[in-house]
Amino acid sequence: MNEDVQSDVQRFLDRLDERVAERIAAQGVEPSWIAARRQAGAARFEALGFPHRRIEEWKYTDVRSIARGDFRLATDADFSPATAARLTLPVEAHRLTFVDGVFAPGLSQLDDLPGGVQLLPLSRALDENHEAVGGPLGRLTGVEFSPFAALNTAFMEEGAVLRLAPGTVVEKPIILQFLSRAGEAPVMSHPRILLEMAGRSQATVIEHHVGEEAAANFTNLVEEIILDRGAILTHYKLQEAALADLHVASIHIEQARDSRYTSFNLNLGGGLVRNDLVAELNGQGAETNFNGLFYGQGRQHVDNHTLVNHNAPNTFSHENYKGILDDRAHGVFNGKVIVKRDSQKIEAEQSNANLLLSDRAEIDTKPELEIYADDVKCAHGATTGQLDEEAVFALRTRGIDQQTARGLLTLAFAGEVLEQVDLDAIAERVELAVAGKLPERFNLAGLVETAVALNEE
Amino acid sequence: MASQEMEQLVRREYKEGFVTDIESDTVPPGLDESTIAFISNKKGEPQWMLEWRLKAYHQWLKMTSPSWAHLDYPPIDYQAISYYSAPKRDEDRPQSLDEVDPKLLETYEKLGIPLHERAALAGVAVDAVFDSVSVTTTFKEKLHEAGVIFCSISEAIRDYPELVRQYLGSVVPQGDNYFAALNSAVFTDGSFVFVPEGVTCPMELSTYFRINAANTGQFERTLIVCESRAQVSYLEGCTAPQRDENQLHAAVVELVALEDAYIKYSTVQNWYPGDEDGKGGIYNFVTKRGDCRGDRSRISWTQVETGSAITWKYPSCVLRGKDSIGEFYSVAVTNGRQQADTGTKMIHIGEGTRSSIISKGISAGRSNQSYRGLVKVGPRAKGARNFTQCDSLLIGDQCGAHTFPYQEIGNSTATVEHEATTSKIGEDQLFYCQSRGISEEDAVSMIVNGFCKDVFQELPMEFAVEAEALLNVTLEGAVG
């Protein structure tokens, strides 16, 4: 490691030492298991340093804007209620809100939680019964996964815990809202989310990352999701962070027999975004659905890495990621499916399609298959290209001008992911956001008129 | 004796496995500057060539063996390899087949490719490489008439130094990768083809490579240059005798296509894959790259890979010229404990460049196979087009098939498509064949051949026949 890199790492470690000292002064000594993990995380992070592009997993993503940043840790959760109201999804839901990683009770909605549902901030869960958290926390991802996971473990103190009792079906969606503030100095947060769903329980979780437009903070999220037999989870990750925000997240899912996990990873914001999704299909009949949409413009960099491990026979995975890139935006997709030896009767499908709207935009995509069993049906496809000229022509024969036709088709391209979304509030919000991002040359006004006209028909 | 023969038949061992006892003029194992000087001196090379080799050697010393491939093999001891081996009577080489050492001819007989017959019947010029020195070149005069140069690279360095100097290393530079650097330092032979402007090579050119002396790695260097509007089809085929120690093969092939030129390069590779435990097979680390330098030029790679314990091979095309075309057709079959990491790179630089990749992988036994490919479209490659299809077939539950396709697209007018599937042989297809009285083994063979059809039809006739036979031999015992 050269000196610069070392001093970057040291700056984060110094910040950690300060934080630990403050916490001990205010709250006394932490339970020993937490302190030990924190140390393990710090040691691992110190050993690895920030990832560089010579590491295959980070070949296309440069994280120097994070490494060189000087981030503080927020100490309060003050946020303008008017702004919060504007940013909050108009969905009737149970809600936990965090401002720069700090729990905001005033912006949360935890009344009338149905029986069998435990939803609380991580800090409170640790206060109430830290041993109950200590078991599952870190089980799916230790500090080995990445330097960012190690850093998260070193800093973790807040986040969300959701536990569902067997057979519990939560009617209303659960929103985990992360707000980012524009402040004098950039801050970082290391939220930790733990979802434990017992047998046959069902829920919809919406993770919403959004904030003030001028925010330029660093979020480093680690999420562990444990689905027991027959549990069903629909997980939306709607990332609409400010364009200067830096966002790194790793989401680890463990699935028992007959469980179903459906993810919608929707990335519209953020200057530098990296998502890692790792699903472990450990029981027969388990199913993973990874859906993704990303829209990059300006100099946005959006990187999605997904991994599905078929560890048991008769497991299924479907993946569909779509990307639209304009200006100088850079998109990365890496999807990996691994079928373990003796995991027979597997079906795995993977598809990634990308649309480049500018000659300066770039996409690097790599759909991978690693298969060690023979009775499998696995397929993947990746396409990058332009709009289908025949489809453009078909619209033009209906009197729609060239640019409007292109705008409509781009919207339809995104629509192929959004039509899978059951929650209208989210589908509409993303669709409008995509329409708003389309280049002006696509004749936006005409587009809206056409859309309204088509709707009326 | 008879029972021994019987046993051999039953175990269906590698047909081409035998060692011809010819005294070799071999240097002691080890690699340093003096080894390179020895090779260069032995070949009677000019000073610039020696310097070129030494430059490569010094670059190689600073490099480390690549570890990114999905391969597992013990580290190679480069000091345990002998880098030069030549049939003894080097000075007075035979001018015709009659002068060829009868023992050598016998070797070809055993292989089932009697040189004179084959050459005459097929009308193919054969630059036969026995270990490292070309022993005989036929049809040279006929080619000479057309103005085509087809000779060993050593002869080319001696007779056409200015051509070699202009093109050697211009596609695969000395420091390109670990194995290319090693090859550049120690290559002992290979072919040189030069087709001048406007000439269509009157016959298909073919070289049979053989590895013979124990513990010698083979470091072939092939350079093919097609000037404007020239065309050539080149066939490469390999067999090797059976032995216990792993043999290293690190070849480099460079193709240069100028304006409107067309180079078709076909390979059938059938080197010894090792015994049931994977012991003794060939390690094949090859760098093959074609440079479509001129506008509308076209380079086509076709390969059938059935042999070797380890295959590390990515025939690539650099599509520099406007509207140039790159093609890659591959069938790779692995059985036993073979490991293959193979694929291609298509680098789109020029406007309107097109490429297509068809890769068919068949894994059986305990083998592992990976397709690794890169399609890169640069910002200037307006309207570039790529289509990639890679399919894997799995036979048996102990093998593995993997796909690692990279796409790096930096141009909004590019259209890039990748499709891949992995599955086992359809049970309904097998049942259909069997219900018509076709045995399971024949049915598998039919289905596999059908699976590979898209690639086989790209092969020249002689090779297509050989390829189907090879496929069946490789997969023998994989079913049932």
UniProtKB/TrEMBL annotation, chain A:
<feature type="domain" description="SUF system FeS cluster assembly SufBD core">
    <location>
        <begin position="185"/>
        <end position="413"/>
    </location>
</feature>
<dbReference type="InterPro" id="IPR037284">
    <property type="entry name" value="SUF_FeS_clus_asmbl_SufBD_sf"/>
</dbReference>
<comment type="similarity">
    <text>Belongs to the iron-sulfur cluster assembly SufBD family.</text>
</comment>
<dbReference type="InterPro" id="IPR000825">
    <property type="entry name" value="SUF_FeS_clus_asmbl_SufBD_core"/>
</dbReference>
<protein>
    <submittedName>
        <fullName>FeS cluster assembly protein SufD</fullName>
    </submittedName>
</protein>
<dbReference type="Pfam" id="PF19295">
    <property type="entry name" value="SufBD_N"/>
</dbReference>
<dbReference type="Pfam" id="PF01458">
    <property type="entry name" value="SUFBD_core"/>
</dbReference>
<dbReference type="GO" id="GO:0016226">
    <property type="term" value="P:iron-sulfur cluster assembly"/>
</dbReference>
<dbReference type="InterPro" id="IPR045595">
    <property type="entry name" value="SufBD_N"/>
</dbReference>
<feature type="domain" description="SUF system FeS cluster assembly SufBD N-terminal">
    <location>
        <begin position="32"/>
        <end position="174"/>
    </location>
</feature>
<dbReference type="InterPro" id="IPR011542">
    <property type="entry name" value="SUF_FeS_clus_asmbl_SufD"/>
</dbReference>
<dbReference type="InterPro" id="IPR055346">
    <property type="entry name" value="Fe-S_cluster_assembly_SufBD"/>
</dbReference>
UniProtKB/TrEMBL annotation, chain B:
<dbReference type="InterPro" id="IPR045595">
    <property type="entry name" value="SufBD_N"/>
</dbReference>
<dbReference type="InterPro" id="IPR000825">
    <property type="entry name" value="SUF_FeS_clus_asmbl_SufBD_core"/>
</dbReference>
<dbReference type="GO" id="GO:0016226">
    <property type="term" value="P:iron-sulfur cluster assembly"/>
</dbReference>
<comment type="similarity">
    <text>Belongs to the iron-sulfur cluster assembly SufBD family.</text>
</comment>
<dbReference type="InterPro" id="IPR055346">
    <property type="entry name" value="Fe-S_cluster_assembly_SufBD"/>
</dbReference>
<dbReference type="InterPro" id="IPR037284">
    <property type="entry name" value="SUF_FeS_clus_asmbl_SufBD_sf"/>
</dbReference>
<feature type="domain" description="SUF system FeS cluster assembly SufBD core">
    <location>
        <begin position="209"/>
        <end position="451"/>
    </location>
</feature>
<protein>
    <submittedName>
        <fullName>FeS cluster assembly protein SufB</fullName>
    </submittedName>
</protein>
<dbReference type="Pfam" id="PF01458">
    <property type="entry name" value="SUFBD_core"/>
</dbReference>
<dbReference type="Pfam" id="PF19295">
    <property type="entry name" value="SufBD_N"/>
</dbReference>
<dbReference type="InterPro" id="IPR010231">
    <property type="entry name" value="SUF_FeS_clus_asmbl_SufB"/>
</dbReference>
<feature type="domain" description="SUF system FeS cluster assembly SufBD N-terminal">
    <location>
        <begin position="140"/>
        <end position="200"/>
    </location>
</feature>
